[in-house]
Design goal:
- This protein has about 80 residues and is mostly helical.
- It has a domain of about 50 residues.
- Helices cover about 30% and strands about 0% of the residues.
- The protein has 3 helices and no strands.
- The longest helix is centred in the C-terminal third of the chain and has 11 residues.
- It is globular, with a radius of gyration of 14 Å.
């Protein structure tokens, strides 16, 4: 019996809500066009928010701005 390979995370989608994460690095890869610094550079990602990312998406897919804002409201 073989172990199935995990499905790679969609790097253009938020691993929490499935929405567009608007990752500048992924846009640059898809278009070949340089992008300004990503929106996430100025954001704070709390440990609680990061802990909610499914294991398969950790280090692979970015959280979207809406989920970051929602987590900040809940923490504040």
């Amino acid at each position: 019996m073989t172990t199935p390979m995990p499905t790679p995370a969609d790097t253009t989608r938020c691993p929490l809500c499935g929405g567009d994460n608007r990752c500048a690095m992924e846009i640059a890869k898809a278009t070949g066009e340089p992008q300004p610094p990503c929106w996430c550079v100025g954001e704070t990602f709390t440990p609680g928010l990061l802990a909610r990312i499914p294991e398969a998406a950790r280090g692979a897919a970015c959280i979207c701005p809406d989920c970051v804002k929602a987590a900040a409201r809940q923490a504040g």
